[in-house]
Amino acid sequence: MSDRPDRWADAIAAARLLARLPFGLGGVRLRARPGPAREAWLGALLENLPPGVPVRRFPPGADPEALASGLDLAATLASGRPVLRPGLIAEASGGLLLVPVAERLAPGAAAVLAEALDAGRPVLVVALDEGGAEEGLPPVLAERLALWVDLEGLRPGPAALGPAGEPVAEAEAADALCRAAAALGLLAPRPAILALAAARGLAAAAGRPPASGDLALAARLVLALRARQVPEAAEAAAADGRGGELSPAPAGDQPGDGRDGQDARLADLLVEAARAVLPPGLEAAVPGAARGTAAGAGRSRAATHAAGRRGRPAGVRARPPRSGERLALVETLRAAAPWQPVRRRERPSAGRLDIRKADLRTRRLVRPAETSRILLVDASGSAALGRLAEAKGAAALLLARAYARRDEVALVAFRGERAEILLPPTRALARARRAIAELPGGGGTPIAHALDLGLQLARGCRARGRVPLLVLMTDGRANVARAAGLDPMADAEAAAWAVRAAGIAAVLVDVSPRPRAEGARLAEALGARRVPLPRADAARLATAVEEAR
Amino acid sequence: MPAYPFSAIVGQEELKRALLIVSVDPRIGGVIVLGDRGTGKSTAVRALAQLLPPIEVVEGCPFNCAPDGTSCPVACARREGEVRRAKVPVPFVDLPLGATEDRVVGSLDLERALATGEKRFEPGLLARAHRGFLYVDEVNLLEDHLVDLLLDVAVSGESIVEREGLSLRHPARFQLIGSGNPEEGDLRPQLLDRFALSVEVETPADIAERVEIVRRRDAFDRDPEGFAAAWRAEDRCLAERIAGAQARLDCVRVPEQVLSACAQLCRALGTDGLRGELTLMRAARALAALDAREEAGMADLEAVAPMALRHRLRKDPLDETGSTARIARALAGLRAA
User: Is this prediction's ipTM beyond 0.85?
Assistant: First the structure.
């Protein structure tokens, strides 16, 4: 095994590779905040580019239409005849397209870029992902960018080339990369395909046939940050071949099965190379839970979708926009266009384009009130003892209803010292179902924490134009307060008042074996309807929640 | 750059079969492909479009009109003088996520209107896809009203435009191919069963298969022309098979026994409506035609049953039991009866 790889040297190697314009690789997803490291990296990329290569920026917030060729509206209006402008993709052809603030890239724009890459357009996308955004870089584009580089915590410094290693035969390279990808939980072929192309590009940059050092570097640059699971330690997997336990792939896939000793050794080397730069947090994550969260694919996508939901365009109104409304520019022009020849004759002094008040059109959006149900599930010892299983059943039933109504669902579980968001608002039922099924029980009952978290989520939902509904499933016996020394019950009621004051609708599902005063007081504070969980009748519960909306 | 050759696709047998079936009989309807990212869904669909024989159109017609067609809204085929014919590849249109209704349906030709004041329709993606394929990646993330619109047109074969003072209808018969990853947002059940066939793409579990995929893709990326040439003979064979099946389709008989098995299967599975039965029958017939047989048999029915029915089963959305397993059980029951 080699020493811990120098991540800065890796990053610079990626920049140098890109500067050779390997168009098949699609580009790079550079995770870095603005700062000296990012500047140095971009500097390394740009100064190594051959002269005359176009570099264009896709400004954040620009219309996705700017990417494709089309009508230049401003020039058209100024000149009074159609003026075409080339799209950014065409302008950047044969060079780089920089996408700053890529984590906020609109799904539409990402799809246009992905389509261009699929069609083999000679352009490399440099997505500058500053992180932090809930949405993240849309996966449709991210997965097509071969290199994933993370500059977080790095300082610019000297970048020495890594050792070349042993020469590797063509056939071996593909095999080893596939095995390494599988060990990292990457079962779709694309990552391995991109890694192989990257390895070839790295070798060509060094002016030699592919060697094990190129493959290891490709594994670090292409596979590591995509990893969906922590690979078993190579030795353990090789020793008893039980690598398959944690992975969804059959055990036969693991590097340890020794179909070909040479390939397996090389694959182990690649896995080790990737493991050394695995994203932080993946190690700690439960292998099962790492699925989907590691690459952020599922979560970020669901959130993007929700964030991108506007009202359904319901046509335009033939009247000038009032405050807060938007002018439907294109429709206005369309309305005015047919009259231009007549108006020019009538009033030659009016300039090239004569738009009158009667032409003005206003955009009309209809936004159906969509609900986000936020389930706060009590998984504390007192609840677990009695009816956690039933509460889970009821939560599952509520999910099914939410599914039928196309509502979003978020899931917060609370037990022990604090509450935790198991699932941010999403419409992906499969994940919600899994999260509920895996919910463990035991510990204290921090109701105040849960309500705080629920309130925070509810505010987020409301900011996105959705109608939040809190569903608190608990026995009401709070015994953990937000701060030491507070009476837990009084604290819970205070948190409940805050929810009520924010005007957020709530339902309290009382899971205690017998009705108790605490539940009633909490429901009172929340301004919520209280629904005792009737034994073995989860259907009635779902109906009750339905009515409470 | 040529597209990746269809015959060079490793594995994905069900996806390939579904695509071949709808190319033999376009009346069957659309295909929904569900599965993980990066498993070659779009590669397969693009490859198919390239495989099909070129179609004959009126040169310059924005609606891909057939020279003998009469339904063209601009009446290109009936204009003065003779019609100039042209052969073009089967249209393959990508509908990007975030496309506006304007782009999909078409709208007033703004350039023309500004320049000359002429009111002319600028066809949208639906017109461009006429007689070809409309591919919607991530159909589960497309705004619902757009999906509704697409399915409406896909079923009726006609797009009706009423906007900006324009009023026209034009033919838009295309194969709607949707793909998506159910982990990232479910498709509304009402929409699901309007796709005729549903395919579940799985990531290849076998390492040797994955290695082969990677090798072929790598070979293709390095030399697309050469790779395509190496597979040309096989692609041509397949194209001939499709053309033969299309010619033969109307002569393929579906015996009473198979028809009644279709009905029994749908009843056993409790699928609603006749759409399931009709799809089963048509798909079985297309499969028989592909294999150059004159009669559809029980084996054809069994081969197409999962893809024709799995998305039509009434199911508890929380029940993990796969639809495919339930269909297999029903088929076994049918055999035993």
Answer: no
